[in-house]
Amino acid sequence: MKHTIQITTNSPEETIALGERIGARLKGGDCVAYKGGLGAGKTTITRGISIGMGLGDEVTSPTFALVNEYRGKGISLCHFDMYRITSPGDLETTGFYDYMDEDTVLAVEWSENIADELPDNSVVIEIQRIDDNTRKFIITGDERFDDIGN
After folding, report:
1. For the chain, what is the domain count?
2. What is the C-alpha R_g of the chain?
3. Which of 18, 8, 81 has its CA nearest to residue 45?
4. Beta carbons of 29 and 102 less than 8 angstroms apart
5. What is the C-alpha separation between 4 and 83, in angstroms, rounded?
6. b/e string for 54-74 if b means 16 or more Cβ within 10 A?
7. What is the CATH number of the domain that holds 96?
8. How confident is the model over 6-63, as pLDDT tens digits?
9. Whole-prediction pTM
10. End-to-end CA distance of the chain
């Protein structure tokens, strides 16, 4: 059953802290699907997720690379940018399907462009930019995220 919660952050540091709490609850095979415009904070929250997974904070936007990989000893994070993906053939060239395994978490920016290809159990994070520092996060996932705001 899907659960939805809303959290507002008031600084990049609070957004990273939220990402850390999310990352600590993720497991291999999870897919985090972001929805949000340019400058919403997708890379910032991914930096926090990486920290929460124990992978460090060296996260950069995958805009030009399409995918950035952050490997750990037991689990890895693959951060995708699907902004320019417009067809199943385009998606195939990213290697997206090759990364779907039990040792990897996928974080997908512009997930709406590949909505039909996302796993059914994806954690959806919609980000609304309120102002320069404030973001509203609408997180839809399973019960692991019910108390994420605490």
Report:
1. 1
2. 14
3. 18
4. yes
5. 25
6. ebeeebeebeeebbbebeeee
7. 3.40.50.300
8. 999 999 999 999 999 999 999 999 999 999 988 888 989 999 999 999 987 777 666 6
9. 0.89
10. 21
